């Protein structure tokens, strides 16, 4: 099972045809879902903590 977002390059006909021809199962993904990658949220929090005093 392959997971991807709905970026324009992922929705291109060529990409869709490739997955279909190679019997790749795609996991559905909502068009405007929030970023659920926890490490990105963690690094954002860390950066705010480190620089919160303007240093």
Automatic annotation (TrEMBL):
InterPro entries for this protein: RNaseH_sf, Tc1-like_DDE_dom
Record-annotated Tc1-like transposase DDE domain positions: 5-52
Signal sequence interval, chain numbering: none
Gene3D superfamilies, sorted: Ribonuclease H-like superfamily/Ribonuclease H
Superkingdom as given in the UniProt entry: Eukaryota
GO molecular function: nucleic acid binding
Name of the featured protein: Tc1-like transposase DDE domain-containing protein
Organism expressing this protein natively: Lates calcarifer
């Amino acid at each position: 099972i392959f997971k991807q977002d709905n970026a324009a390059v992922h929705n291109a006909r060529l990409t869709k045809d490739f997955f279909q021809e190679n019997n790749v199962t795609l996991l559905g993904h909502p068009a405007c879902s929030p970023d659920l990658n926890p490490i990105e949220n963690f690094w954002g929090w860390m950066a705010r903590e480190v620089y919160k005093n303007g240093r």
